[in-house]
Amino acid sequence: MGTTRTTSKGCKSGGRRVPKQTPLSSAEEEVLHLLTQEFLTPKQVSIRRNCSQQAVSKIISRLKKKGILSPHETLVVKNGWTSQPFISGVQPAVRLHGVELNVKFLFKDERYKRVVAKGNLLSFDGCTVRLYRDSMEVYVSESFYGDDASRATALCIQYLQRLLVRLENELGVIVVKFRSQNIRWVKGEYAEVGNELAKQYNVEGDRLRVYAREDGRLWFEIDNSFNFHEAETKHPQTGKHDMDAVRDHFNDIRDHRVPLPSELYRMLSEVVQHEKEISAGLSSLISLLRPADVSPPSHDEKIVRPDYFG
């Protein structure tokens, strides 16, 4: 099955617009794979395919016109790598955005010095990269959507793997190496899209922010970015775990009707009353079962217990 993309034209089905799919030729699929999966340059692609660079350039031009490749020859985000709020016509549940990385160089050549000499701030594939002597900060502008926080994170990691390899080629550095711990996830914010509580707060114009006890950092916020009505978890260390917990909480409220405060008070009052009645009944039963010549010990009387191990 060939790779396809959505075009702007479509037909209607059941009242909903269904996009047409434009298949790619075998040559386009091959070049697309070499560029975006094996991260080859156009010159390397021509060598691999045993064709001229001009032929490769024509194929790349067609892919760009079809919207498969960006102007920077990167894959236009598919499988969730996009800032669009819908995937295949279905609104996703979790949006990961605001991702920031701190990356230490394992190696850099003379090319890096030439790049830094021109400026230490550059835009690359829509991301902002801040360059230092032995490291760089990467601020990702993309949003990553998934059914849950884990899926959104997986899509983000796939994107970052491609991005870092391309940055290596662009800057003349090495940052990706097996078992190296030179890449640090600084932050990433998870948002549940279309959260009902967020909708209510946004309609009423209220704000809700919750700060963590351990370090005072903001970890939960009601937001309305892009009019998505989002409940966001923002803590850099626990954001993913917090989103799973928040979603479980809201889904539990949705699936099981939560009693109102007045109803909780009434139920607790009934429980206390039942406990009093049970306590009184047990006291009466004990009095009836106790022999007549045995009186209960007074509060001042010391109870002498036998020595079972003497």
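The record above closes out task 2.4. Task 2.5 opens with a second protein, given below.
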Amino acid sequence: MTYSLDFRKKVLAVKERENLSFEQVAQRFDIGSKNTVFRWTKKLEPCATRNKPATKIDMDALAEDVKNHPDAYQHERAGRLGVCESCVQAALKRLKISHKKKR
């Protein structure tokens, strides 16, 4: 869960004003961990989402492979494309392709 910037500022202000420990502040504001509050002292702004493009796999080749072999398993696709199964899984997710096997 991402906490808002104004909440983070409020928490750190209370910590400074009342001279509380990281653990006391985390308990007072019901924050999951004292490490969370500690990280906020280093970097206050929340991280933006990460959109990393595919680097190892050619998305066009994967789309073509899905078209040519619609019932293939991910390990079979990985073998044909020369990447690992997790690369195929992530790339299929980026292409918004999911496939339920039929018996």
